[in-house]
């Protein structure tokens, strides 16, 4: 349930509503909009009569949130969520460009890639150190050694780092190093992991499960939000369909569908959604045209010798060209691509 306060409601009136919600045993989620305060009473609220709140002073109206994902829904939070990540803001007018290798493979590989993607205009560096590989015999990632290299890359370039967390046992290590926690497609419904992340204040990039519906993705986001962590970024990374011409099928529909259902930022991962470097750029452009707030893209200095996902990885040159092309689309749809030089000048 959502209690919408009058524009001139006093802090005491807001407090009285909060107290009432607490006394019923529901949890309180405050959304301080530009014009007014909305207070969410979240929990088993469907049988609760609305007039219990309507009569309180300072309350303008009380509405039920009909979607099962309460805190993630646009009903609860009509404006886009925009939040800062070391060095940029996601969800606003500017596009977020996250780029880097699938896996951190060596110090020189991540440093070289970090400088190249920064030069091309990226605002954040990606790189996996715990890799969810289909085969236990494939490269599994460098673990903490990889985090050390990423930290050095951040220190040299100023780019915040986005790294996948595979299990809740990695949380302390990850919190020490990373700027954005990535939850991969295979873990989208690992509710224990989501709850642990919800209890932190780290921004999260939550990838859609490859066989999960949009609603299931939003319910997973709700696990994180209901723990008190509001900085959730959703990522469409392709789903499994009958089509075998590409690794996955980019559900481009999901971009505007998510933007209509939720206030959370939405990014597209055309690397995993196509699985083929030749198709990454066109699908990246489609994503921006469809309204995505950003892109996460795999870039490797030598894709042919990458230890994971080489086939879908762009060379730094191809990535720079993608950013240039994306810029034209962004301008056409009234968004901005920040290049590194623009960022340095404020
Ligand atoms: C990745 O980003 O390298 C990755 C493993 O992604 P996904 O979880 O989408 O497969
Ligand atoms: Mn990958």
Query: What is the radius of gyration computed over CA atoms, rounded to a whole number of angstroms?
Result: 21 Å
Number of strands: 15
Helical content stands at: 25-40%
Write down the overall geometry: elongated
Question: Averaging pLDDT over every residue, what do you get?
Answer: 95
Bound molecules: phosphoenolpyruvate, manganese (II) ion
Major beta-sheet overview: 8 strands, parallel, barrel
What is the percentage of strand-forming residues?
A: 15-25%
Number of helices: 12
| H-E string | EHEEHEEEEHEHEHEHEHEHEHHEHEH
* Alpha-beta classification: alpha/beta
Uncertain runs with pLDDT below 50, 5 residues or more?
341-346
Give the CA-CA distance, first to last residue: 41 Å
Give a description of the structure.
- This protein has helices at residues 11-24, 51-54, 107-120, 144-157, 171-177, 191-198, 214-226, 254-261, 270-274, 277-289, 316-332, 340-344; strands spanning 2-5, 27-32, 37-42, 59-63, 83-85, 88-90, 94-100, 124-126, 161-164, 180-183, 204-207, 232-236, 266-268, 294-298, 336-337.
- The longest helix has 17 residues, at 316-332.
- Helices cover 35% and strands 18% of the residues.
- Strands 7-8-9-10-11-12-13-14 form an eight-stranded parallel beta barrel, surrounded by six helices.
- It has 346 residues and is α/β, with parallel strands linked by helices.
- It is built from twelve helices and 15 strands.
- The model is unreliable at 341-346 (pLDDT under 50).
- Bound molecules: phosphoenolpyruvate and manganese (II) ion.
- Manganese (II) ion binds next to loops.
- The site of manganese (II) ion has 5 residues, from loops.
């Amino acid at each position: 349930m959502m209690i919408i306060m009058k524009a001139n409601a006093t802090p005491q009136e807001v407090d009285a509503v909060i107290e009432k919600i607490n006394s019923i045993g529901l949890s309180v989620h405050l959304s301080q909009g530009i014009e007014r305060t909305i207070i969410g009473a979240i929990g088993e609220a469907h049988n609760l009569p609305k007039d219990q709140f309507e009569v309180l002073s300072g309350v303008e109206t009380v509405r039920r949130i009909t979607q099962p994902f309460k805190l993630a829904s646009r009903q609860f939070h009509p404006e886009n969520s925009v939040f800062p990540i070391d060095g940029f803001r996601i969800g606003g007018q500017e596009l977020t460009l996250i780029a880097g290798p699938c896996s951190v493979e060596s110090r020189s590989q991540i440093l070289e890639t970090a400088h190249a993607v920064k030069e091309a205009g990226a605002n954040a560096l990606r790189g996996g150190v715990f890799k969810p590989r289909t085969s236990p015999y494939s490269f599994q990632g460098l673990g903490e050694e990889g985090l050390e290299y990423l930290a050095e890359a951040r220190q040299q370039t100023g780019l915040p780092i986005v790294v996948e967390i595979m299990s809740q046992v990695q949380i302390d290590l990850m919190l020490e190093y990373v700027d954005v926690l990535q939850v991969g497609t295979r873990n989208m419904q690992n509710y224990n992991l989501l709850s642990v992340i919800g209890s932190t204040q780290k921004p999260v990039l939550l990838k859609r499960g490859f066989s999960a519906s949009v609603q299931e993705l939003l319910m997973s986001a709700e696990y994180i939000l209901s723990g008190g962590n509001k900085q959730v970024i959703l990522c469409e990374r392709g789903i499994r369909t009958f089509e075998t011409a590409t690794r996955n099928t980019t559900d481009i529909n999901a971009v505007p569908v998510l933007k209509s259902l939720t206030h959370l930022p939405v990014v597209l991962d055309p690397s995993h959604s196509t699985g083929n470097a030749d198709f990454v750029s066109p699908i990246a452009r489609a994503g921006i045209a469809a309204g995505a707030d950003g892109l996460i893209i795999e870039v490797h200095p030598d894709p042919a010798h990458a230890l994971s996902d080489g086939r879908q990885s762009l060379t730094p040159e191809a990535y720079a060209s993608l950013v240039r092309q994306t810029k034209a689309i962004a301008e056409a749809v009234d968004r901005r691509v920040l290049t590194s030089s623009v960022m340095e000048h404020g």
